[in-house]
Amino acid sequence: MSETGNRLRKLLESPNFDPQNYVKQLSQQSDGDRDLQEHRQKIQTLADETAQNLKKNVYKNYRQFIETAKEISYLESEMYQLSHILTEQKSIMESITQALLSTDKDETSKEMQAAFPKETEELKQRTLTSLLEKVEGAKNIMDTPGRHLVYNGDLVEFDVDNMSPIQKVHAFLMNDCLLIATWLPNRRGTVKYKYNALYDLESFAVVNVKDNPPMKDMFKILMFPDSRIFQVENSKVKKEWLEILDETKKNKASKDKHKKEEEVPTSPVRAEVSNNPFDVDDDEPADAEESVDLSLEWIQELPEDLDVCIAQRDFEGAVDLLDKLNEYLKDQPVTQKVKELKVKVDERVRQLTEVLVFELSPDRSLRGGPKATRRAVSQLIRLGQSTKACELFLKNRAAAVQTAIRQLRIEGATLLYIHKLCNIFFTSLLETAKEFETDFAGNTGCYSAFVVWSKSAMTMFVDAFSKQVFDSKESLSTAAECVKVAKEHCQQLTEIGLDQTFTLQSLLVKDVKAALLSYKDIIIEATKHRNSEEMWRRMNLMTPEALTKLKDEMRSCGISFQQYTGDDCWVNLSYTIVAFTKQMMSFLEEGLKLYFPELHMVLLESLREIILVAVQHVDYSLRCEQDPEKKAFVLQNATFLHDTVLPVVERRFEEGVGKPAKQLRDLRKSTRPVRINPESTTSLV
């Protein structure tokens, strides 16, 4: 078989193996059905051996597979971080390059205007004139002196109501107005457009329209009570239009303001000199400019140093530089140069904040626990953004707790899983609380946010807890042990002054109530079933060991049982009453483990209903039984139930709850067995 199997294995592993051709040849060579069956058996045996070898290899390398998967996960996280760092560096370099280019361009433009002011103005006007010659009905636009072209381009106008294209237009932005001209379908010479509308820059507002494909690259012009929507070629052109429109409107407003100030008549009376040191003129005097020394080397290099710190993820160094600058400028006057420096620095602060926010985002690796977030949190607090730091820190920890709960494997007994779940959750909550207290020690306003977060985290824990304990229909004893474990772990939070016991109870009360009522119904049904088969005979345990075990069980429940047993293995009680006693005492103990103040009446009424089932059965048997011996035996069981069991239930309930059980006491008094006549029925009222 081994030689034949090896030959068959080589044939099947051959790259040129053709299954159809192989089956065809095999059918021709075989003598009958028996040969085909034998060959099929060989192939099946070979397949089983291959599967077994594969399974052995998998088991052999199982640990290596797990370790490899972990390493791949870590590598993926690190590659993601590296990619983000490279993206940040690229964006920083692009912003620096753009800033340098724009600075050079502005300086060149200013130099040209300073060197050739007249020629530059004339060139702008000639350009506008040549363009307006192509617009029909726009000859009088150049009558306004000083008007020149700023920007122009093709646009597509859309209907405001149904967002459908209306017409193609060309827009001319001048230093004081905006001209909209429509395209002529039949051109006449150089004339391409027809005058449509002219808007003063102060008469309209420009609004960016959010992209909603296929409607994108649009902006809106609002003129009360109308509005118009235009679409440009791409996002780059849209950005240029919005920036240039905004800048042109600001320039016009500034010029109009200066013109009004110049037109105000000046009084010939000599101006009084103010002696108030807090009166500051809007135009900074020369000595104020000179009083703030910004020529220091570290100030000159501050923007570049901040860029380097952000690129190298030296967040502490960046914040130290900002603190140093703020300390230096604290008592200095706010001059124009200081404003320009602050604009540059504010841009770096924005970039630094974005990086710190990303460090705290839940998308980042959650390994390292709450202490791993301390660096980013502390720097955000130093930047004056403690509220944002608090929000991001709590979001990060919520994601970490949720991930830890999700990764917990459900295996083995439910109680074992709950032990692991409570250990993971409450340890994480305790560590988070301690880290929060460390990071936000000086920000007491953030503590309320932590309390709210801890409640939402507790809700997440209870969802996982209830799904495993109550939704899976575990026994009441298992559910009671699980709730007891959760309560004990919850008490650990009181070490730091955080008491979540009430939150835990309020979230569990619905499921616990349902479990108690369900188990109560089970006990009542079981008791009724035993009552239907009641023969009122003494209980025979057959062996001394069984009797000893029953005595121990009753003793552990707090019930005196010695007077109802003899030297042999007989018990002077009915099996039904003994089984009922054991089941009810078990229900009481489990119910006390599950007890919440909100469930006081639920547990009390459940016990009362269970006891009533047994009491009514004994009462019915006493009234209906005719045999004197059996009637005496029933009375003995009734006495045991009334004088021994019910007082123990009442006392144990009051000890566990700390409140008197009035309903149980009233029930015991109303069911006292009264012997009326030896020959008459003894009844339980």
Question: Can you put this structure into words, describing what you see?
Answer:
The protein has 685 residues and is an alpha+beta fold. Among the domains are: 1-73; 134-233, PH-domain like (Roll); 530-671, no CATH class. Helix content is 63%, strand content 10%. The protein contains 22 helices and twelve strands. The strands form three sheets. Strands 1-5-4-3-2-8-7-6 form an eight-stranded mixed β-sheet. A hairpin with a 6-residue loop joins strand 2 and strand 3. Helix 11 runs antiparallel to helix 12, helix 13 (386-407) packs antiparallel against helix 14 (414-439) and helix 16 (476-491) runs parallel beside helix 19. The longest helix has 54 residues, at 62-115. The chain starts with a helix and ends with a strand. The model is unreliable at 266-289 and 674-685 (pLDDT under 50). One of its GO terms (biological process) is Golgi to plasma membrane transport. It is found in: Cell projection, Growth cone; Cytoplasm, Perinuclear region. Residues 252-286, 664-685 are annotated as: Disordered.
The fraction of residues assigned to DSSP E strands is 5-15%
Number of discrete helical segments: 22
Mean pLDDT: 79
- Ends distance: 86 Å
Widest sheet, order of strands: 1-5-4-3-2-8-7-6
If you compute it from the alpha carbons, what radius of gyration comes out, rounded to the nearest whole angstrom?
45 Å
Structural class: alpha+beta
Q: Helical residue percent?
A: 55-70%
Number of strands: 12
What spatial form do the alpha-carbon principal axes imply? Answer: elongated
Mind describing the biggest β-sheet? Answer: 8 strands, mixed
Which regions are unreliable across 5 or more consecutive residues at pLDDT < 50?
Answer: 266-289, 674-685
Keywords: Cell projection, Cytoplasm, Exocytosis, Protein transport, Transport
Main location: other
GO biological process, one term: exocytosis
Function: Component of the exocyst complex involved in the docking of exocytic vesicles with fusion sites on the plasma membrane.
